[in-house]
TrEMBL record:
It comes from the Eukaryota. Pfam families: DUF620. This is Uncharacterized protein. It comes from Olea europaea subsp. europaea. InterPro entries: DUF620 (IPR006873).
Amino acid sequence: MHSHAHKNNKQNFMRKLCPNFYREDGLETVLEVPIPEEMFASMGSNVALRWQNMATWMKAQTSDKWSSPAIARRYNELSFLLYFVGSPLIPLQVQLDHSINRPIKHSSIEASTAKYIVQQYIAATGGQAAINAVNSMCAIGQVKISASDFHQGDQSVKVSNTEEKGGFVLWQKNPGFWNLELLISGCKVISGSNGEISWRQSSNQQRPISKGPPRPLRRFLQGLDPRSTANLFIDAVCIGEKIINDEDCFILKLDANQALLEAQSGPKYEIIHHTVWGYFSQRSGLMVKFEDSRLLTVKTNKDDGDVFWETSMESVIEDYKYVDGVNIAHSGKTFVTVFRYGEQSANHKRELEESWKIEEVDFNIWGLNTEFFMPPSDFKEK
């Protein structure tokens, strides 16, 4: 079995290895995820022993354990946070064959302006040659997520002080192939795309979630992957200007088309709309904020009518630094608001917040082939 960690002429930055907890046939060389020390403090005297204890503990969480109401509630909450805030997908396909330099003479003023703004963004993130030289990536980061309870009606929402801490490792090969392992407070989510399907699975859930065509992970569009961001917004329109953190910004807007929304809807739910906005600094050319909003309707069996879920996410993106000639954002915050409402049901509102920090980014990982991104056999679409 060959390791995916070796790279040409570069120091191997993978300091420790940990076993893959969920797949007996899984790779031995799954990266250590940087988890805050306090989470492990009581689990063993050294890191290797702690990982072993953690693995043993997680394997011991068999399905009968999940039936304990307290544990089930705790893990359902963590899974909700990990899916909703930690690993959301964007329903827009990034086309790498898009020509960034496509002619603009037949475009509207708003579309032409957007293309000029994207050109400035490409220059600000290192230029077309540097961006195109990247064919794969590994990023290691840490996250903190806090959440309020659901609040009924129009009551003010205070984000509680309970803060979940954890880390992630993210692999990508030419945007369509990616893999994310995200671990927070002992709950793990694995998400991935092999260019054909996307899937997600958490520690306490054996069945994968897989629906619709492959989509990019939102995390890539928070300043980590300039090529995908440029290819996404090349089809946008410029709708105006706004000041974000004292920066004059252009606003680019893009709506998911009906065919994409239908492809990702299911028998019991339907995505009504999904819109994304990028805020690009007029001074630096960099994207300083990424926002998206989705409206979903869930069909109920009752006579109550449908229930609507509206999710708004906005990410402030900061701390750009060059890595191998490409300007990558190394920290940021995402604010999430979830509204649930329906004809007969009480309205509920919830607010969540994530802050993240990228610790290491490396490009062009040697030996990272597409087989690395294949879903485990039990993840195949049924």
